[in-house]
Amino acid sequence: MNNFEFKNPTKIIFGEGQIAKLAENIPHGSKVLMAYGGGSIKKNGIYDQVIEATKSFEITEFGGIEPNPHFETLMKAVEIIREKDIDFILAVGGGSVIDGCKFLSAAVHYEGDEWELVEQMKARKQEKVVPFGTVLTLPATGSEMNSGAVVTKAATQQKRTFGGPQYFPQFSILDPAVVASLPKRQIANGIVDAFTHTMEQYLTYDHGAYLQDRIAESILHTLIEIAPKVMENPADKHLAGEFMWSATMALNGILRLGVPTDWATHMIAHELTALHGIDHARTLAIIAPNLYRKLKEDKIEKLVQYGRRIWGITEGSKEEIADKAIEKTVSFFHSLEIDTKLSEYAQNYEHTADEVFNRFKERNWMGLGERQKVGPQLAKEIVEMSY
Amino acid sequence: MNNFEFKNPTKIIFGEGQIAKLAENIPHGSKVLMAYGGGSIKKNGIYDQVIEATKSFEITEFGGIEPNPHFETLMKAVEIIREKDIDFILAVGGGSVIDGCKFLSAAVHYEGDEWELVEQMKARKQEKVVPFGTVLTLPATGSEMNSGAVVTKAATQQKRTFGGPQYFPQFSILDPAVVASLPKRQIANGIVDAFTHTMEQYLTYDHGAYLQDRIAESILHTLIEIAPKVMENPADKHLAGEFMWSATMALNGILRLGVPTDWATHMIAHELTALHGIDHARTLAIIAPNLYRKLKEDKIEKLVQYGRRIWGITEGSKEEIADKAIEKTVSFFHSLEIDTKLSEYAQNYEHTADEVFNRFKERNWMGLGERQKVGPQLAKEIVEMSY
């Protein structure tokens, strides 16, 4: 294992009915901004539970945070927090709402153009932040137990990541009952998101991290095992809980400890969302298999381990096992009714590879991935393979 | 999964040479008590590294904390901390030194007979504690990343556990290089300790916790895989790191989330240490297999899963698989040169079962274990099987 530092102070409150514990976890006397998305929480009862549990606090609501949250939308919330002297943020939603609230946390006390927090990485150095907690409504991104976030500037279609140890939620409430009311599309997205997060930290090169590899494999096995069942029966709270906890564990910092990580799939895929508005998880399903194909030689040892341990492939040469493992991955995505070609999502896609090339070049991304090899040209070729 | 809450704020600093980071992790200007054990750190260079790294602080040393740390010894350190107004404790040692420092943390500001902290569970309610960090010198107990501890009152041979969320270390430095200088006996003890910690949270009944089971199995697999190699070559820092991280992960709170736990092996085994002074890990190796045999019917589903997944046993009835799995466990302990019978450690052992019966009865321990079935009589029978 490589050297590492790890500290994750988020308190997880897991289980059915746990939303009632909000009041004891928000600091007494706080003025609270309750942030949420498109309003599905008003249909599935979560909104009512949150309002009931926080009635002893002064609450200001801010709804309408969109998927891939926009800087422009979030700045409206920043103004409200400043005007009303709000001192605690409660994110009620999935990764987009939570990521958005991490931006709010950073931006409220920032003196300057708030986009600098993201574009110039100023968020990491921002000392005065607004504390926040979350009620997770969609298992997928892991944002509920990590300190990273992604926001998009709609005006320029720039999708950017930021983070820092000050952006861990104070607490996150994980109630598996929320899965019951999710559209199948979002459940499938959540499974693919968690699966790909795991792969980004696992499918690199052989580095002899016995335990870290096996923990990653635990999450992959669990997701594969529960995926068809939870799609079929999202109201099964046991399965929903396994799904929820797997998604959290996939990106709470444990998998990355002491191991090389890739993340090139994510960086390419973010551009597909920015350019075509495709769901984040689906862009991962489009890019990941082709990135594995393109970098098969570099990743061969781990592809073989993945094929053997996860998919039980025992026959064939290393290359054949690797190929089969990639095909199994694609079939897994298809089994969740997730298409894996860009042309199945976008009509005018022919210039996408060139645009990704230009965007990588503009930002001087010459060496992403565990071997620092994925630059504009490789990204372009991977996108072309994904048409 | 059952409902749970989880928060673990300990910062882990892992890797070779990380002791040098002490100064940036101890609060500036602290008056520090440096606590350690029998002095092995003066031979293996750790003492010198710690002294070098903390030279900007006012340090008071307190050596001589024994294995299964004694209340009586620790109270001497409490007096020194009070006299010198020390405000930070640095534990340099294994689980005994770290557990001892958790007691110091609790006792310094306690007003009353300090044994009440342990015997009457007052530690959990103690608000004013002294912050502490650790430099781990012996992978085994997981105390470096949890908030529990065990101390012994020598006068009465009472070995007691206590804990509370205020007893997480502020930080723990895990340098795998420390394993190189450990006696084989201590490496073997550490492996068995971590293995049994995992089993206490895994080998219960089938509760459908896919992910939690698989993470526990990850640790068991890793320990089995590295055990002979790390015994053979403790200077291999890669193997030592896997061992160290496995021991930490085995008892940092993650395995217990949402699952039933047993811990009856530990509670019986503690009495063997109290009565006969046998190494903690060795008492676990004596008791665990017989507890599994005695409770085979209750644990059959998990014994079979354990046998199949960990030991690859595919043939036979459920009962045969369970029996073989227990035998494999015993063989694993023997492969580490750890005896598994009480008579191999103690001469006058014939009254042990009766004494354990009485001790369980005195403390009204009528229902330990995942089914709350292990009381004085079962404990007695398990100890008798262990002669």
Descriptive keywords:
homodimer; 387 residues; Rossmann fold; Dehydroquinate synthase-like, alpha domain; two-stranded antiparallel ribbon; 14 helices; 8 strands; globular; alcohol dehydrogenase (NADP+) activity (chains A, B); ADH_Fe/GldA (chains A, B); ADH_Fe_C (chains A, B); oxidoreductase (chains A, B)
Tell me the major beta sheet of chain A: 6 strands, parallel
Class of the largest domain in chain A, according to the CATH hierarchy? Mainly Alpha
Strand content of chain A: 5-15%
Q: What kind of oligomer do you see?
A: homodimer
- Beta strand count of chain A: 8
CATH architecture of the largest domain in chain A: Up-down Bundle
Helix content of chain A: 40-55%
Task: Enumerate the strands of the largest sheet of chain A in spatial order, edge to edge or round the barrel.
Answer: 1-8-5-4-2-3
The sequence of SSEs of chain A as H and E is EHEHEHEHHEEEEHHHHHHHHH
C-alpha Rg of chain A (nearest Å) = 20 Å
Most residues in contact, chain pair and counts: A-B, 41 and 41 residues
Characterize the structure shown.
In chain A, strand 6 (148-153) and strand 7 form a beta hairpin. With 387 residues, chain A is α/β, with parallel strands linked by helices. In chain A, strands 1-8-5-4-2-3 form a six-stranded parallel beta sheet, with helices on both faces. Chain A has a two-stranded antiparallel ribbon with strand order 6-7. Chain A contains 14 helices and eight strands. Chain A folds into two domains: 11-177, Rossmann fold (3-Layer(aba) Sandwich), CATH 3.40.50; 184-385, Dehydroquinate synthase-like, alpha domain. Chains A and B meet through strand 1, helix 7 and helix 8 of A and strand 1, helix 7 and helix 8 of B. Chains A, B: This is Iron-containing alcohol dehydrogenase. Chains A, B: Residues 188-356 form the Fe-containing alcohol dehydrogenase-like C-terminal domain. Chains A, B: Pfam families: ADH_Fe_C, Fe-ADH. Chains A, B: InterPro entries: ADH_Fe/GldA (IPR001670), ADH_Fe_C (IPR056798), ADH_Fe_CS (IPR018211), BDH-like (IPR044731).
